[in-house]
Structure formats: structure tokens, C-alpha cells
Write a structure and sequence with these properties.
The complex is a heterodimer of chains A (about 300) and B (about 240). Chain A is mainly alpha-helical and about 300 residues long. Chain A contains 11 helices and 4 strands; from the N terminus they run H-H-H-H-E-E-E-H-H-H-H-E-H-H-H. Chain A starts with a helix and ends in a 14-residue tail after the last helix. The relative contact order of chain A is 0.21. The model of chain A has no long low-confidence stretch (mean pLDDT about 90). Chain B has about 240 residues and is an alpha/beta fold. In chain B, about 35% of the residues lie in helices and about 25% in strands. Chain B is built from 10 helices and 10 strands. In chain B, strands 6-7-8-3-9-10 form a 6-stranded mixed beta sheet, with helices on both faces. In chain B, strands 2-1-4-5 form a 4-stranded antiparallel beta sheet, with helices on one face. Chain B starts with 5 loop residues before the first strand and ends with a helix. At the A-B interface, helix 6 and helix 7 of A face helix 2 and helix 3 of B.
């Protein structure tokens, strides 16, 4: 195998892990209320700004140890973004719970525009950036090429997989997770068994926003720059990942993210970087035509 | 007379312009087994679900142990000690048998979980064999047993059952009713909605007959079983 392939494998894995994190928000929300939260990409974008604000404030106070910086930034960003998720559900979706299926969708698009414009007004339209925090990389020579894995990428992979593992554990093995799954599988029955499903739905929005925030911090570390429009493309990519894995399925979202990231990276190096978005969205169209239930999803059964 | 376990007082229920329940009044006494029989679409399931405000009744009152619970949200009703085995069983298809049981005990916490799970496995040995299987892979009868076991995991004072015999083989129906009889003998209050009138009435102390959203007849199980109208309409005339 040549160096470029391996290099893109690493790049794709990193990108894919982050897509997977964001896809979790789409898939879980779809799971419990059957709606695509089109404002989810903007929640990710907000978290990138929060991350930069946190780093700037901590830098102002002279904190320069990477673990401490990360700890504080993650706690701050995940918490505040979680609150955003909760508020958005509360004001934009819950009042429409018993409305038509289309109403919350339109509301989501509205929230997405509001958030973009709010950030543009309050933070400016210019691209923002954060300095590189973790310098250095592992280098391996492979024949004539060499493979470079930056410490940042390793950190991203570790953090993303820890995030996914913790979430999977919560959903699979805790009482809270069972309540989420029960709400997803049969909301009415969950209520009859004493579950406050409104609270569970709020919780799912908070979980989705938190995972998007983790992705926001990690991507910001990797690329360093972002703007108020950053949530759109990556949001649609993560949505593609969720559909690829099977919307509604949690492992599907993670798997879909990884597959999308890996294939996009290979496409970039083997065919054309400029067309990588075209590749991803063509993939979305193909899945929707030939396997709409995704890789791990089940064909939709109409409930009576 | 003591306070009834469950009481409906002149309950009306509308789905939009369609009236599903007309001035329904009925009572279930503590420790009693009562069945409500009637044809498909008579409003029996609506009546059971209205206890959980799904949908909410339009007028009238629902009382549980003398307390007005009309309009209380479903998850609040569940914490009062009312459990339901709903129409169509509604087990969680992607959860294991064991997880389904755990969903039942949510409202009372984990204090009795191990003890009650053992009790359920003794009551329904098939569930023990399939404890780690996903619930969707169970047969209809096993799913019904699981739905009953799940409801019992909350140690309810009042157990509501909606068509527990629907779509099951006669042998399984017999087994389910045998279990219900045991539960009743242990002092549990049962309120049963059934199309299978003969099984239901033989089990019950009292019964109500519902026609087009109205209670048209009431009496002891024995009386209804021998009532010519009931025999014609619900027992196949023999």
C-alpha cells in the first residue's frame, strides 16, 4: 500500500469519526420524534464559536497546559451547547408536537437561519480561527512516501471514540438509555409505563447537541478556522452519514460517519478534492434510491 | 360500600365530531374482576386508554381509589399503581425480554426487581428461556405473556387488560386466563376488556356490555353468561 492511501485512511478516519458524532444528533432525534432537525448543523457551528471563546478566555488568564485547556473548553462548550439544544427543542419543536409532520421541519429551517444570522451579527461575518494547540506529529516512512499522523488527529480519534463509547454504554446499559429506547420504539406505551416522554425528548436533544459540540471542538482543533456558515455543509454531510448508516440507528450513525469520512478522503486523493462534496451528496442520492433504510436500519413499517 | 378501585362517572369522549363514549358510568371494586364486553369498535379500548388521558375524556370524571384522575397525564397515572396490558400488546420490539420487564418496574424503582423478575419467570417459564432474546422474535402468545409480566412488574393495585386473548391459539388463551384467575385469587383487581365474552365472563365477578359507546347491560358474570341477548350477540347463540 502506498503512503498516500494510508495517509488518507488516517485523515478519513478522523473526519469520519467527527461526522459520526454529529450524525448521532440527527439519528437520535429522528428516532424519538421522527423529525430531521435541520438546525443541528448550526448547533455544531455555535459550538465552534463557544470553543474559540473558551480558548481565548483561558488564554487571557494565561492557561497554556493542553490537558487543562481541553478539559475546561470541553466542559464549557458541551454544557452551553447542550443548553442550546434543550432551548431549541423547547421553543421551536415542542409547541408543534401535535401539529403536522411538516411544521417542525419548517421551524427547524427557521431556527437554522436565526442561528446563522445571530452569529453573523454578534461575531461578525469574517472567518474566525484558533491557534494550533497541539504541535507535532508521528512520521513513518513507507517506501518513497511518508505517513504523518499529527498529535491533534490522534487526540481527535481518541476523544471521538471515547464520546461514542460512553454514549453507547449509556443507551445500551443504563436505565436512562432504556427510557430513551422505549420512547423511540413506542412513545405511547412508554408513557403508560410511567416515562415522562417530553423529558426524554429534551434529553435526546441535549445528547445530540453535546455530541455535536464535541465534534465542534475537535474539528476546530484540527482545521483552526470556521465561520457562521460552517454548520451547513458539515451538517448535510453528517445527515448523509446518518442516512447511510440507517436513520434512527445509533450504531448506524457512527458507522455511516466512518464510511463517509473514509470514502470521501479516498475520493479526494484518487479523483479530485474539489468534487468531494459532489461525491458525498451523490452517495446520499444513491442510498435514498437503492437502500433508503440505510445499512443498519430496518425498512419502515407503517404503524397503525 | 367502600371506595371503588376505579369509577367512571358519566364519561363522554369525542374524537373530533365522533362520539366514542356516551355517559359511561361503571365501577370496579377493590379485589374484584370486572369485564367489559362488546363488539369491535364499541369503544372499549377508548375507555381503557382514557384512564391514561389518551385521549382525554370530554366530560365526566374518572376516579381511582376515590381520587379524581381525569385529565392526569399518562406517566403520572402510571405512578399511582395502575398498569395496563394494552391492545396489541405493545411490547418493545427491539428490547430483550428482560429489558421489557425492567421497563415495567420503572415506576417503583429497583427495590423488588430481582424478586419480581424471578416471580415472572415462574409464572411464565417460557419467558425465562427467552430472557435474552429480542421481544420481536417471540410468538404472539409469548408476547402477550411478556406484556402481562411487564405490567405486573410495577406491582399494580389495578391491572387493566385490553383483549388479552386477541389473535392467540385457544390453548394459549386458556393458559393466559388461567394466569389471570390466579392473579385474581391472589387479590388483585382486574379490569378486562374482551371480545372473547365467554372466557372473560366466566372469570369475572361482574360484567358490563358496551354497545356503540354506551353501557347497555350490566350484571354478574353468571347473569350475563345466561342472558339471552348476550348469548345471541357475543357468545354465538349457543
Amino acid at each position: 500500500m502506498d503512503g498516500i492511501f494510508l495517509q488518507q485512511l488516517v485523515n478519513g478516519l478522523t473526519l469520519g469519526a467527527v461526522y459520526g458524532l454529529i450524525a448521532i444528533g440527527y439519528t437520535m432525534v429522528y428516532g424519538v420524534i421522527g423529525m430531521i432537525n435541520f438546525a443541528h448543523g448550526e448547533v455544531y457551528m455555535i459550538s465552534a464559536y463557544l470553543c474559540a471563546i473558551s480558548l481565548a478566555v483561558l488564554g487571557f488568564f494565561g492557561l497554556d497546559s493542553f490537558p487543562l485547556l481541553m478539559l475546561f473548553t470541553l466542559v464549557f462548550t458541551l454544557t452551553v451547547t447542550g443548553v442550546y439544544g434543550w432551548v431549541i427543542e423547547r421553543i421551536a419543536y415542542r409547541p408543534l408536537r401535535h401539529s403536522t409532520r411538516l411544521a417542525p421541519l419548517i421551524s427547524a429551517i427557521g431556527i437554522s437561519l436565526i442561528l446563522q444570522n445571530y452569529v453573523q451579527l454578534s461575531q461578525g461575518a469574517r472567518q474566525q480561527g484558533v491557534p494550533t494547540l497541539l504541535e507535532g506529529a508521528f512520521r513513518f516512512s513507507i517506501g518513497d512516501d511518508f505517513l504523518q499522523i499529527s498529535y491533534t488527529k490522534i487526540f481527535i480519534l481518541l476523544a471521538a471514540f471515547v464520546g461514542m463509547a460512553v454514549l453507547t454504554y449509556i443507551i445500551q446499559y443504563t436505565r436512562l438509555g432504556r427510557m430513551c429506547r422505549a420512547t423511540q420504539q413506542d412513545r405511547k406505551m412508554a408513557q403508560i409505563l410511567g416515562i415522562n416522554t417530553d423529558r426524554v425528548i429534551s434529553l435526546v436533544f441535549v445528547i445530540g447537541a453535546t455530541m455535536a459540540a464535541l465534534a465542534g471542538v475537535l474539528i476546530t482543533l484540527n482545521y483552526g478556522t470556521f465561520d457562521f456558515y460552517a454548520g451547513f455543509i458539515i451538517g448535510v454531510k453528517a445527515f448523509t452519514a446518518a442516512v447511510l448508516g440507517g436513520i434512527g440507528s445509533l450504531p448506524g450513525a457512527m458507522l455511516g460517519g466512518l464510511i463517509l469520512g473514509l470514502s470521501e478522503a479516498q475520493f479526494s486523493s484518487m479523483v479530485n478534492t474539489d468534487y468531494k462534496d459532489v461525491f458525498s451528496f451523490s452517495l446520499l442520492v444513491l442510498i435514498l434510491i437503492f437502500r433508503p433504510q440505510g445499512l443498519l436500519g430496518r425498512p419502515q413499517v407503517v404503524k397503525v | 360500600m367502600s371506595v371503588p378501585m376505579l369509577e367512571f362517572r358519566q364519561v363522554d369522549l369525542f374524537y373530533g365530531a365522533i362520539q366514542a363514549l356516551h355517559q359511561v358510568s361503571l365501577q370496579v371494586q377493590v379485589g374484584e374482576t370486572v369485564s367489559l364486553i362488546g363488539a369491535n369498535g364499541a369503544g372499549k379500548s377508548s375507555l381503557l386508554m382514557s384512564i391514561f388521558s389518551q385521549p382525554q375524556v370530554t366530560s365526566g370524571q374518572i376516579l381511582y381509589q376515590g381520587r379524581d384522575i381525569t385529565g392526569l397525564q399518562a406517566h403520572q397515572v402510571a405512578t399511582l399503581g395502575i398498569a395496563q396490558v394494552p391492545e396489541g400488546r405493545r411490547i418493545f420490539p427491539d428490547m430483550s425480554v428482560e429489558e421489557n420487564l425492567l421497563m415495567g418496574s420503572l415506576v417503583i424503582g429497583d427495590t423488588y426487581v430481582d424478586e419480581d423478575r424471578q416471580r415472572m419467570f415462574e409464572l411464565f417459564p417460557r419467558l425465562r428461556e427467552r430472557r435474552n432474546q429480542r421481544a420481536m422474535t417471540l410468538s404472539g402468545g409469548e408476547q402477550q405473556m411478556l406484556a402481562i409480566a411487564r405490567a405486573l412488574m410495577s406491582r399494580p393495585c389495578l391491572l387493566l387488560l385490553d383483549e388479552p386473548s386477541l389473535g392467540l391459539a385457544p390453548l394459549v388463551v386458556k393458559q393466559i386466563f388461567h394466569t389471570l384467575r390466579e392473579l385474581a385469587a391472589d387479590g388483585m383487581t382486574l379490569f378486562l376488556v374482551e371480545q372473547n365474552a365467554s372466557h372473560a365472563l366466566r372469570l369475572s365477578h361482574r360484567g358490563y356490555v358496551m354497545v356503540n359507546g354506551r353501557i347497555s347491560l350490566m350484571g354478574t358474570g353468571e347473569e350475563l353468561l345466561t342472558n339471552p341477548q348476550v348469548r345471541m350477540a357475543y357468545l354465538g347463540g349457543h
